[in-house]
């Protein structure tokens, strides 16, 4: 792989440089978190990677999960060149954060990665194909203010007719997102995907287990078994976790990629903007509804329901829009109640 020649090529832009220059910790060195482990993490200046721990002061100041370290963070650290562990003294303010609701009944955020230029939502075209789930991933990316791109894998498993029909279905539902279909197996469409990864830019791969994220990284490196992959189940197309932690890696062309474990459960918190951007052709109609607080479900004078009845908005897309709005509202209510109890 090609190491970055400068901090800038490792993602250290003006946003972070100005913060580092203003820091009172003049002995600290800027470094980026490339992996997070239990009790410690890996940090790198682009040429060397070191194990590191946070200071006790920084740990005590962490109030919520949003204050935890995550892959892609920029930090200021001492003892980078010696000792068992470098010491992280501060975390530079993030440009963006990709996060989701924690799995299960707990209502809180789980950090996925930070400081990302483009998030690639990787989804399969075969048995695991699920447009509502794809829209869920897009809403999380949009909420974070990160540019989304959809990568559809395993096109070799569909006939030419099936592929054309499936791509038409995706493009009809996702009118404002770039979509690329390819195959890790025979390389079809892979060159177009490879050109999306630019030197010095940070990318994140998210998607369910078994959709081909790790295989894509192997294809990008040009080494089939650089990252071990496992087959998916024949019955439902679901995969087994091959990536078990988030890690920032550097491709041969200098692009920076954060690989993430597959997500079996994808809940939402605070995704009002994400839902609005993901379903923009629906939310654009809200101003035409008869009532300002229209629920868009069995409401007289609802412009969105009228569009569904007229066939201009697919019913399945509308139903997923309503489902995600209701889920988000319920989670936000639980979060408010939880904060009230903790006062």
Main attributes?
single chain; 343 residues; OB fold (Dihydrolipoamide Acetyltransferase, E2P); Ribonucleotide Reductase Protein R1, domain 1; 3 domains; 13 strands
* CATH architecture group name of the largest domain: 3-Layer(aba) Sandwich
Q: Characterize the biggest β-sheet.
A: 6 strands, mixed
The CATH topology of the largest domain comes to Rossmann fold
Total tally of structural domains = 3
User: How much is the average pLDDT?
Assistant: 83
Question: Compute the gyration radius: what is it?
Answer: 22 Å
The assigned structural class equals alpha/beta
> What is the CATH H-level superfamily of the largest domain?
P-loop containing nucleotide triphosphate hydrolases
SS field, number of helical segments: 10
Low-confidence stretches: 225-244
How many beta-strand segments?
A: 13
Distance linking N and C termini: 50 Å
Shape descriptor reads globular
Q: Strand-residue fraction?
A: 15-25%
């Amino acid at each position: 792989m090609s190491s970055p020649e400068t901090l800038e090529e490792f993602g250290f832009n003006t946003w972070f440089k100005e913060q580092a220059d203003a820091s009172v910790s003049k002995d600290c060195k800027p470094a980026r978190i490339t992996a997070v482990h239990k009790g410690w993490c890996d940090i790198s200046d682009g040429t060397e990677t070191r194990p590191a721990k946070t200071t006790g002061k920084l740990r005590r100041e962490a109030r919520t999960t949003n204050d935890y370290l995550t892959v892609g963070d920029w930090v200021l650290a001492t003892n980078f060149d010696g000792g068992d562990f470098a010491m992280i003294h501060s975390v530079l303010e993030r440009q963006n954060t990709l996060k989701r609701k924690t799995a299960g009944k707990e209502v809180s955020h789980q950090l996925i990665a930070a400081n990302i230029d483009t998030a690639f939502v990787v989804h399969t075209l075969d048995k695991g194909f699920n447009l509502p789930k794809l829209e869920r991933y897009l809403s999380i990316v949009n909420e974070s203010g990160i540019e989304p791109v959809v990568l559809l894998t395993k096109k070799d498993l569909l006939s030419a007719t099936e592929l054309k029909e499936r791509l038409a279905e995706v493009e009809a539902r996702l009118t404002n997102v770039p979509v690329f279909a390819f195959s890790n197996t025979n390389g079809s469409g892979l060159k177009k995907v490879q050109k999306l990864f630019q030197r010095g830019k940070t990318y994140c791969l998210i998607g369910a287990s078994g959709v081909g994220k790790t295989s894509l990284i192997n294809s990008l490196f040009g080494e089939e078994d650089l990252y071990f992959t496992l087959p998916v189940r024949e019955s439902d197309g679901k995969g087994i976790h091959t990536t078990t932690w988030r890690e920032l890696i550097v491709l041969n062309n200098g692009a920076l990629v954060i690989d993430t474990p597959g997500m079996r459960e994808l809940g939402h918190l605070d995704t009002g903007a994400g839902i609005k951007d993901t379903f923009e052709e629906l939310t654009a109609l809200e101003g035409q509804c008869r009532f300002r607080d229209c629920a868009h479900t069995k409401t007289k004078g609802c412009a969105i329901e009228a569009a569904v009845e007229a066939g201009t908005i697919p019913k399945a897309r509308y139903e997923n829009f309503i489902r995600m709005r209701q889920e988000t509202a319920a989670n936000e209510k639980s979060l408010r109640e939880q904060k009230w109890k903790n006062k």
